[in-house]
Design a protein that fits this description.
Length: about 200
């Protein structure tokens, strides 16, 4: 993949489970609910209530203390450095678009600074459709080479995804919960990146 892979002028990163490691978050959830530890290789659903056998209300309760999760997230440094080495050039612009609510912006910026993550722009868009949001809010030169790195199946399943693919290349961060995206003719993905 290295030699012939194009270098991109704009890289958009999702944050959670793309720039962060999933396993430490799963361990926090296991501890919170006093459940047996689950490996990220066993997570078949993006919906944690399904994976941990908890109710949607219990899952909501866990995420109500989301600031704790933000502070304790573990940077997937090796993965991101590998992606940058393969896909970026020295003038690449980095935008982080996360479904974290804007109330977590300051904590997220602190976490990014603590981990010495270089980025040009951070967008905390809450629960909005990320593919649609990118199309409507990231204005670029049409000649730019652009790529989005994401793990959430909802991004690829969005009605706006096909339109996004007219302007952007896409890469899925490989987890069992998005396996149907990785192997489907229905959702075109340019690259599959090992978690």
């Amino acid at each position: 993949m290295h030699e012939n892979t194009p270098k991109y002028d704009l890289i958009i990163f999702d944050l959670d489970n793309t720039m962060t490691k999933l396993q430490p978050t799963l361990d926090m959830i296991s501890d919170y609910f006093n459940k047996e530890k689950i490996s990220e290789t066993e997570i078949k659903s993006f919906n944690l209530a399904d994976s941990f056998g908890v109710t949607p209300d219990e899952e909501k309760e866990f995420w109500s203390q989301e600031s704790e999760v933000v502070i304790n997230s573990v940077y997937a440094k090796e993965r991101i450095e590998r992606i940058k080495e393969i896909f970026a050039h020295k003038h690449t612009t980095y935008i982080i678009v996360t479904n974290r609510h804007n109330a977590l912006r300051s904590l997220t910026e602190q976490w990014l600074d603590k981990n010495q993550i270089v980025y040009d722009r951070l967008e905390c868009i809450g629960k909005q459709d990320k593919a649609k949001w990118i199309i409507e809010n990231i204005k670029t030169d049409s000649n730019m080479e652009k790529i989005v790195f994401e793990d959430n199946p909802a991004f690829f399943e969005s009605p706006a995804y096909a339109k996004l693919c007219n302007e952007y290349y896409t890469a899925v961060i490989k987890y069992p919960y998005n396996e149907h995206i990785q192997k489907s003719d229905e959702w075109y993905v340019d690259y599959v990146i090992n978690a």
